[in-house]
Each structure stands twice: as C-alpha cells, then as structure tokens.
Amino acid sequence: MKLQTRVYQKETNINPFILLKEIFGDIYRSRFLARQLAERDIKAQYRQSYLGIIWAFIIPITTAAVWVFLNLSGTIKITDTGIPYPVYAFTGTLLWSIITEAINSPTASTFAAKGFMNKINFTKEALVFSGIYKLIFNSSIKVLLLLLFVFLFGIGFHWKLLLLPFVILGALLFGTTIGLFLAPISLLYKDVGKVVVVGFNFLMYITPVVYALPREGIMRTLMLINPFTPVILTSRDLITGTSPEFLTYYFLVLAATLPLFFLGLILYRISIPIIVERNA
C-alpha cells in the first residue's frame, strides 16, 4: 500500500473558502473518530457517577426551584410572565444550561485531549464535533424533562412543539459558535476560563432567563442589546406555544451565527496546532 506524503509549509495567503473545504473534508473523514470520542466520554461521564444521567438536568431544576421558592415566598416579586411561573423559570434555566454547556464544549473537549494531541496526528475539528454529539445527547435528556413540565402544568400539546428540535439545534449552534472563539484563548490562559464562568453568571441576570423582560428602564435596554435575549425568549415562546415577540431578532441572530460558526472553525483550525506545539 502506497503511503500518503503530506508536506507542511508556511502559507502567506490563507483562502478562507479553501480552508473551509479542507475543514469539512477532514470532518467527514474523521466522523467515526468524533463519534467514538463522544461515546467514550458519555459512558465515562455517567459510569463514574452515582446519580448518573440525573446530573444532566439537576442544575437547571435546582436553579429554577430556588427562583420559584423566592417568588412563592414573596421574597422577590416576579412580574406576570403569561405562563405558569415554574414552567417559565424551568424553560429559561434549561435553555441557559444548554447554551452555556455548548459554549464550554469546544474548550472542554480540546483540553481533555491535549495529552495525546501532540503525539497523534488527527483532525482536531473531530474534538469539536464529538462535543456537539455529547451536547445533542445531553440536550435530548433535558428536553424530555422539559416536555414533562409543559404537560404537567397544563400547557399540553401544540404544533409549535414540533419545532423543538430546531429550537435546540439553534441554541447549540449559537453556544458552540461563541465557544469556538473562546477556546483558543481559554487554552492559552487558564484565567480566561474563570473569567468566562463569572461573566456568564452575571450575564444570566441581564437575560430574561428567570424573569420577564421589563417594560422600560435601563435593564430593558441592556436585555434588548444582549443577543442571548432573543434566543432565550423565542425558544421559550415556541416551546410554550405563545406568540414569539422577537422572532425577527431571533432569525437575525441565527443568520449572523452561521457565518461566525464557519469563521470560528477557521480560527480553531489555525490556532489549535500552534497552541498544542507551544504547550508541548
């Protein structure tokens, strides 16, 4: 069998379209590797835990439960959300957990593989897509619990629930795109990862995750310029069967996300080998 010879050389001109063609060609050829990595990580994730798969939704449940308790006890006063507040809080925290998990996924998958990245030559983008496989698996579990909440609180079945897979995929694409830009920086500087965690904890409070969008004031302005807002609000509206108020804004965010996702893949392609070599 004739061995393939590959020559690596510095390129002064980087054509993004050629790079994307190479990236997706390599992703297709490494699809089996990505799936195997995802299966290995999923099995390890739940095998080494007493609670197992319950951890996939325990955080959004507890977060929502805290806000429901605060609202019922009168500690805080939540404005009318138009739907039962437990459903509102749980859908918000669950969607937020899906997005933040997607943001962290490229960094986590790459960091977990850094031990053999400088020893084995393989398509690094397989790590990103193994993370996406894991996200889809974890999100599917959360969606089952979400449907239970929807029916438990009397919302029942409606045709917009058929759009749920597209809603979840949109949230995953949005989060993964942000994660692709953060991954190289987070891998170079560990402090960045800690700053990201703190930053997103703050960002949650200027996003209508557990309370409705204010009618006026500076908080409304901050929420409206926050791109997470239309993703959370429109996804929740489609899940609960209400009329989406920011549907155009939502589609604009997703339309901007797609080219940024491709740009993020190019950045990942160029930067990760350099980071691996630097950390070797």
Overall structural class, as computed from helix and strand content, comes to: mainly alpha
Please tell me how large the radius of gyration is: 21 Å
Instruction: Give the ordered list of helices and strands.
Output: HHHHHHHHHHH
The biggest sheet, with number of strands, parallel, antiparallel or mixed sense and barrel status, is: none
Question: Explain this structure to me?
Answer:
The protein is mostly helical. It has one domain (about 40-280). It contains eleven helices and no strands. The radius of gyration is 21 Å and the shape is globular.
In a few lines, what is going on in this structure?
The chain is an all-alpha fold and 280 residues long.
List the helices and strands and how they pair.
Elements: H1 16-29, H2 31-47, H3 55-72, H4 85-112, H5 114-117, H6 125-152, H7 164-188, H8 190-203, H9 218-225, H10 228-240, H11 247-279
Helix pairs in contact: 1-11, 2-6, 3-4, 4-6, 4-7, 4-10, 6-7, 7-8, 7-10, 7-11
Main traits of this protein?
280 residues
